[in-house]
Fold:
Amino acid sequence: MKEKKIILFDLDGTVFEDFLKADKEYIEKTFKKKYLVLLIDKIARVINSFDILSNNMKMLKLRLLIYSLFSFKKYNKVLEDYENWYIDIASSYLKNKTRISISRLKDMGFNIIIISNNSFASKISLNDICLVTPKSKKSYIKTLFSDISNNICYFVGNNYIDDICTAKKCNVKSIYVGKSKFVSKKANYAVISLKQAIDLIIQKNRT
Structure:
């Protein structure tokens, strides 16, 4: 049975490298002159910059709920607008920049799977990129391992709880993409950009 070499990539902040910047610009535009919301968002971003706390859908919805309350906007409308914005911008990024980035790994015979906690991503239509949005990354990886032909070589991500810890629990080598010294020490490898992560994988797998 032929071995299937798999590399898992987190979506927001990893293969979608500009997500945090784009999200910040969107929030500033949506809640313009809502200074309390912008202050809360600024504090949240400082905390999030440590790349430790989980970035799941519950956290995203709670964040948008708080912003809605303090800006006197309708939560359902804020959530719907954010979802539409996210699907549009993430789709464009994946179909252009991400496709080019991961093509080098696909040329080497790796199977690329992009995995995300963000259920909005399930509505992104991609023809040649595998994108999954499981409720649990850990459970999904275990499902992959149920096929003995699957060899998950690396899990590339930018979050300690969501990505690096998950990889460790599943006995998969982790590559952290970010600048947190704490998370860097916990991963098997640490880089600061997607390009560096791809270069590292290529270097480690040259024959």
